[in-house]
Amino acid sequence: MCAEIAQKIQTTMNNHEQWRWKCLNLIPSENLTSLQVRAMLGSDFGHRYAWDEPWYGGQKYTIEIEGFAVAAAKKLFGADYANVRPLSGHLSLMSAIMGLCQPNDTIVISHSENGGYPLNLQARFPLDVQYLPYQPDRYQMDVSRAVELINRVNPRLVILGASIFLHPHPVKELSRVTKETGAILVYDGSHVLGLIAGGQFQNPFQEGAQILLGSTHKTLFGPQGGIILVKDDPELAEQIDLTLRPNPVLVDNYHHHRVAALAIALAELIAFGKEYAKQVVENAQVLARNLAVKDIPVVGTNWGFTSSHQVLLQTNSLKQGIKVRDQLEKADIIADAGVRLGAQEVTRRGMKAGEMQEIAEFFARLLVKKEPPERIKQNVHALVQQFQTIHYCFDS
Ligand SMILES: Cc1ncc(COP(=O)(O)O)c(C=O)c1O
After folding, report:
1. Residue 223 covered by a domain
2. How far is the centre of ligand 1, averaged over its atoms, from the C-alpha of 336 (Å)?
3. Which one of 124, 261, 278, 313 is most buried, counting C-beta atoms within 10 A?
4. What is the reported pTM?
């Protein structure tokens, strides 16, 4: 009985892997890891405990691995301090908030209506949450009103970041006012860390952010997890650290196999990040332009569609987004109900501008010409079949 269940689980996993490998994945928050990263995830590090206090034996290599990851992260992002222990991007954000705020402090974030990450803080924490003002077109911040808001509410934290992340944030402009009011400027780069690492997106530290944090598995093609980076300010780093080290608040025993996998992914980015990130942004731009030309409504016609990995389709409602997502999935094109599309995973498979044009044509056949999805699915498989290896890594 138990063996049968184990067999079923194995079969389900095989089915999933075989299917997803044949699909065209355009989810903007996912990516593919290299074989070397996967080997770390399946390694003995996944069975072990290690901690800063001299409590557990058997730690000598686990400690060394964390050192590699921290050193690589600092080098890649130009940070003075790096913590690779958060188990997810969300927990890296929560560590910063819990480490730096007192009850009833004010924090300023972007609302999910404007593409912000839907943090539901008020429900659990006594914090005053204020929202950054945006232009009527929803995804462009209204900088002068944002400056006015920060001056008026005097927040402890200003968090810049978004789940719909098409263009850079006004970090420079807002850092001038946060410096004056004493607010801490946090940049949630969950979506764009891989692009920042490759020098293809704004550099939040150079523009005045004090903290850069986020997920390690979106454009940063590591294992699922989180990272926190701090520039210049050891006190800030120390306060955040307290949520993740002895007497921890948010993470007690962190995951050494994940940290080892992240160390490899960071090394891959040091070696190939520039080339990768450039291709991701180029692919997203080509995809957006070609979709628009083929009468697929893409957000941002007046402002160049995208400077990141994301392309956003214009939909009127979640219901319509779900319908589009489901229609795409019938042709083995995987997206979310946003409908956000991400170019990072197809780039990692080696696709370039020509393939983006082909993908846009699949969308047009499916959504404009209403061709049967089954027919397009065959073409999707034929395209994907040509891209069987993972690029921008040391696997070969
Ligand atoms: C801007 C932003 N921050 C944080 C998160 C949470 O990241 P994770 O899924 O790694 O917890 C997300 C999730 O997609 C996000 O879009």
Report:
1. yes
2. 14
3. 261
4. 0.96
Domains in the chain: how many in total? 1
Atom from ligand 1 closest to the CA of residue 224: 10
DSSP string, 187-236: EE-TTTHHHHHTT-S--HHHHT-SEEEEESSSSS-SSS-EEEEE-S-HHH
161 Cβ below 6 A of ligand 1 = yes
- Residue 325 Cβ contacting ligand 1 at under 6 Å: no
CATH at residue 79: 3.40.640.10
**274 lies in a domain?**
no
| 190 Cα: distance to centroid of ligand 1 (angstroms) | 6
Angle between helix axes 234-241 and 89-100 (nearest 10 degrees) is: 110
Does a structural domain hold residue 329?
Answer: no
Domain that holds residue 127: 37-266
pLDDT digits (tens, 9 = 90+) for 221-260: 999 999 999 999 999 999 998 888 767 788 888 999 999 9
Question: Ligand 1 center to residue 289 CA distance, Å?
Answer: 27
**Helix or strand run (H / E) with residue 292:** helix 256-293
End-to-end Cα spacing for the chain: 41
Domain membership flag for residue 249: yes
Centroid of chain to Cα 296: 25
The span from the CA of 128 to the CA of 126, in Å, is 7
